[in-house]
């Protein structure tokens, strides 16, 4: 099946892994939203990593300049300023789309605006207040010991280099030690309210509508309750009671006096579109129960949220659980931007300073709930968005364009139109936010799918068009890596794209007008890019696993893709080294009662390919 953008799961934009068989094994498209590999498009970021995975020695990888010259239609990234390069890339995309018809773009944007309006309307129907809604807000109640005040906070940053050209990067903000968002008696009230609500759900026959989140991953060991459902439950079942008044007053105070002022001061005031009315797109209480999760740990995989700012409030002491915390993809910047050096010992998931304290970050920053391995961890997560009277904020429009691309384009009358519709959605997302690495990633993958379609359609006809599409896809994927340089899945996809270019030149060797020496040098150059991409993808996923992130499928897919590439080059020893990294997991899974059934398709393919490579060595 073709590679796909995320389905409209309301909030999180994570892309599923799936396979497309090539020769004896599966070539796996396991991709998502950010990036990890920095090649031509940001060569200043990369120092060639040298690992046992590399099939090509660093010395044999030509310079970016030589590759840019040899790959004629690939945008030169060493002699072009970033803004100029971006303009050139988008001009090529527009040529492909023939985008003079603005009616199509207007219709797409009108649908997106309607979606945003519906979400705002939904939020207004909940009992959670908007920033400007003070009609029923009571301050200074006897229950709360806190007063209206400015929330003090501090940045959490990583330093990518000791030089000024790589300044510290802020990952998130954290409340100061003396300024929690909730104090202990407020936490107790909230947790008791959640427990009461859960007891109510367990006593009803049909609780699916209330208990299932609109956007989080339903994983074993995770329990959830929407804050709006909790407040509504108390209004309906305990109206007028003291507990109901306390819960409603606490939620209002938390949002109106603490969260909204913090988000406006720390985030929204820095935006060009700073006049929005803040509101809660959604808010959930999450319990990570390590006992119920058994040996896998309770957590959330790497993902993005669909709001503007996400606020994560800690509700119980670190003494009550082991592990946990929020891991941000950009915590890997010191490793990725410094040539692959460093270990996960220096990288730990981030946590608030204690119960009642919080961390806040842009919802579009890719992050994960690291596994809780022992005990129970409770958090309250608020997804804050901004509503404006004139039009939806640009970051909101871009997020919807990306998440809705496939579902909106499914009604197109032909495969060709569906693919170009997806390209158009991501092109429009980039117009909203030019530095959106996820949009560039999805644009590159849509172009790569369009390339596959054209290959199947044209067969032996003139290949000029399909080659230009492939080069454009590579350039867009490279552009993505300049904005989001820590996503191993993007690196894996870039390796796949480079591999297609390698196979194109290899298959047309007799028709190529280059000299034998020049063609050999070109193939060596592209082969080096493939090896570098897959190697860094494997390294990044390894680091993510070590800090408790569930990236097994992505890691296994990168290993399988790299092993398959090496086997095609008859480098069976190199392929065995790579495939052995994951096939041990497959052998272990077969020892369990359900292992033979549950072992992933990727692991089975890797095991079969490993056996094939070993037989070739024995010949």
Features:
619 residues; alpha+beta; ten-stranded antiparallel beta sheet; two-stranded antiparallel ribbon; 12 strands; 14% strand; globular
How is this structure best described in words?
The protein is an alpha+beta fold and 619 residues long. It is built from 19 helices and 12 strands. Strands 3, 4, 5, 6, 7, 8, 9, 10, 11 and 12 form a 10-stranded antiparallel β-sheet that branches. A two-stranded antiparallel ribbon has the order 1-2. The longest helix has 31 residues, at 516-546. It starts with 17 loop residues before the first strand and ends with a helix. Residues 6-73, 140-147, 208-215 and 591-598 have low confidence and may be disordered.
| Model regions low in confidence, pLDDT < 50 over at least 5 residues | 6-73, 140-147, 208-215, 591-598
Averaged pLDDT:
79
**What's the β-strand tally?**
12
Pairing-aware structural class of the strands and helices? alpha+beta
Report the principal-axis shape.
globular
End-to-end gap: 35 Å
- What portion of residues is helical? 40-55%
Strand content: 5-15%
**What is the tally of helical segments?**
19
CA gyration radius, whole angstroms: 25 Å
Largest sheet: 10 strands, antiparallel
Task: Give a brief rundown of this model.
The chain has 619 residues and is an alpha+beta fold. Helix content is 48%, strand content 14%.
Give the topology, please.
Layout: E1 18-22, E2 25-29, H1 64-70, H2 82-97, H3 102-124, E3 153-158, E4 169-175, H4 184-202, H5 208-211, E5 222-226, H6 227-237, H7 242-266, E6 277-289, H8 290-293, E7 298-303, E8 309-314, E9 321-323, E10 326-328, H9 333-336, E11 358-362, E12 367-387, H10 394-409, H11 415-432, H12 437-458, H13 464-483, H14 488-507, H15 516-546, H16 552-568, H17 572-589, H18 595-598, H19 601-618
Antiparallel strand pairs: 1-2, 3-4, 4-11, 5-6, 6-12, 7-12, 8-11, 8-12, 9-12, 10-12
Helix pairs in contact: 2-11, 2-13, 3-10, 10-11, 11-12, 12-13, 13-14, 14-15, 14-16, 15-16, 16-17, 16-19, 17-19
């Amino acid at each position: 099946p073709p590679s796909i953008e995320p389905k409209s799961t309301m909030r999180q934009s994570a892309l599923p892994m799936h396979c497309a068989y090539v020769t004896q094994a599966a070539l796996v498209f396991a991709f998502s939203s950010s990036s990890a590999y920095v090649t031509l498009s940001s060569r200043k970021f990369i120092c060639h990593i040298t690992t046992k995975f590399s099939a090509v020695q660093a010395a044999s990888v030509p310079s970016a300049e030589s590759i840019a010259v040899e790959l004629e239609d690939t945008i030169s990234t060493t002699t072009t300023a970033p803004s100029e390069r971006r303009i050139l890339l988008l001009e090529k995309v527009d040529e492909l789309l023939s985008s003079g018809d603005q009616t199509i773009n207007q219709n797409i944007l009108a649908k997106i605006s309607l979606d945003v309006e519906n979400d705002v309307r939904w939020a207004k129907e909940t009992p959670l207040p908007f920033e400007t809604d003070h009609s029923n807000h009571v301050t200074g109640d006897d229950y709360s010991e806190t007063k209206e005040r400015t929330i003090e906070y501090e940045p959490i940053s990583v330093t990518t280099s000791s030089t000024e050209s790589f300044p510290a990067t802020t990952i998130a903000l954290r409340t100061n030690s003396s300024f929690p968002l909730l104090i202990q008696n407020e936490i107790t009230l909230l947790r008791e309210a959640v427990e009461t609500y859960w007891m109510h759900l367990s006593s009803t026959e049909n609780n699916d509508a209330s208990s299932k989140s609109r956007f989080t991953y339903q994983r074993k060991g995770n329990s959830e309750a929407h804050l709006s459902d909790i407040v509504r439950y108390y209004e309906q079942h305990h109206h007028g009671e003291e507990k109901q008044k306390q819960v409603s007053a606490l939620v209002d105070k938390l949002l109106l006096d603490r969260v909204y002022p913090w988000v406006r001061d720390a985030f929204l005031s820095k935006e060009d579109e700073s006049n929005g009315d803040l509101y809660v797109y959604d808010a959930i209480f999450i319990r990570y129960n390590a006992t119920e999760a058994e040996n896998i740990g309770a957590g959330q995989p790497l993902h993005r949220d669909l709001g503007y700012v996400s606020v994560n409030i800690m509700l119980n002491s670190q003494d009550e659980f082991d592990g946990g915390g929020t891991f941000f993809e950009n915590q890997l910047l010191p490793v990725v931007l410094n040539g692959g050096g460093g270990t996960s010992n220096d990288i730990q998931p981030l946590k608030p300073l204690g119960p009642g304290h919080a961390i806040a970050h842009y919802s579009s920053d890719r992050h994960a709930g690291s596994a809780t391995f022992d005990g129970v961890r409770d958090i309250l997560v608020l997804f804050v968005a901004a509503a404006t009277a004139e039009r939806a904020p640009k970051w909101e429009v871009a997020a919807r364009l990306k998440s809705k691309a496939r579902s909106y384009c499914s009604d197109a009358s032909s495969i060709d139109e569906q693919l170009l519709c997806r390209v158009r959605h991501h092109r429009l997302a980039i117009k909203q936010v030019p530095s959106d690495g996820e949009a560039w990633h999805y644009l590159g993958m849509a172009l790569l799918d369009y390339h596959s379609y054209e290959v199947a359609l044209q067969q032996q006809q003139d290949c000029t068009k399909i080659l230009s599409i492939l080069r454009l896809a590579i350039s867009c994927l490279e552009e993505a890596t300049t904005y989001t340089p820590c996503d191993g899945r993007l690196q894996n996809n870039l390796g796949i794209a480079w591999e297609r270019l390698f196979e194109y030149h290899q298959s047309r060797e007799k028709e190529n007008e280059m000299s034998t020496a020049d063609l050999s040098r070109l193939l060596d150059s592209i082969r080096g890019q493939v090896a570098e991409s897959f190697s860094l993808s494997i390294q990044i996923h390894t680091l993510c696993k070590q800090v408790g992130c569930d990236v097994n499928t992505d890691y296994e897919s990168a290993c399988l893709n790299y092993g398959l590439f090496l086997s095609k080059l008859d480098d069976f020893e190199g392929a065995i080294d790579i495939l052995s990294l994951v096939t041990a997991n497959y052998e272990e899974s077969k020892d369990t009662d359900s292992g033979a059934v549950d072992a992933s398709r990727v692991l089975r393919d890797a095991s079969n390919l490993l056996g094939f490579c070993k037989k070739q060595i024995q010949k």
